[in-house]
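Notes from the 1:1 (GR / supervisor)

We went over the backlog. Supervisor wanted to see one worked example end to end before approving the batch request, so GR pasted a single chain during the call. The sequence is below; no edits were made to it. Supervisor asked that the structure be written out right there so they could see what the output format looks like.
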Amino acid sequence: MVKFWTHVCSMAAVVLLLLILLPVRATVEPTLSPECREFLYMGTAPVGLEDHSLVKICQRYSNKPRYVTLYNIKDHVPVYSAYTFKRSDGEKKVDVPWMYEPQLSTSSDTGEMQQFPRGYMHQNFEDAQAVLEDYANAVLYERGALNPDEHQANPNDKAATYTLTNVVPQVHEFHRGPWKAQEHIIRRRLNNYCRGTAYVVTGITTSGNMIRRHNIDRVAIPTYLWSAYCCIDYDHNAPYDERYKFPAFAHYGLNDKESNQILELSVPKLEEFLKKSTFVDKNFQIFVDDCVPPGSS
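Structure output shown during the call:
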């Protein structure tokens, strides 16, 4: 009888362990739902980015999907965030706490980003994603959003950008200087000349440098930040210096204190650069057919 109950208890312990561990991967779907694909040009995510450490997150806030992130659960950074640009004046109008992604947590059964609770257990969060403490003593870096609130209009869309699964360590001077200025430029350009939906993908490259905490590698530091947009319905009467940057264009910059330049280039040229600079496959493509509309010459 004692052996029987010992066996039952052992089986119960195994079942409990599985229930604790399984949600880390099970709630992040490899195939995005139709409502999440609305943030992707032609419903298609960038191709040529495959690794066991990468998971797609449909970023949900206030009962709605807001954008899509490809997240690296090993390096604890987003590889890219893909979103639809919303016309706005660029002003920040929300004040929300930083959030985490329950879909990467062992302690939650919700699929919607949540505020970090007080006294949270580190082991329930930090195995698969960054936590607030990772940035606390990173004096050279600050949290820079790949999907910036400046490119959103609805307060809830803006609030949804404040999750650590949407941010990377950016050098202060680069983030507040050339990169922020380029976000302004893109906002004004798309505000003025994109007539339809503008699809944006913003991502990073890494080279092994990490933010460390307690002598453990925690968060990958980007070498470059890059971004590309696609808007096939645009103003054909725009000035030439803006018109030639449609239907698609891109840019990238070095995440460095001394960096003061952002290079603008075509989407295919950006893809060539990324094939040489990061781990993408040779078939890497950000937008279907590089955002050349079907039937175009």
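Supervisor's comment: Confidence is low (pLDDT under 50) at residues 2-27.
Batch request approved.
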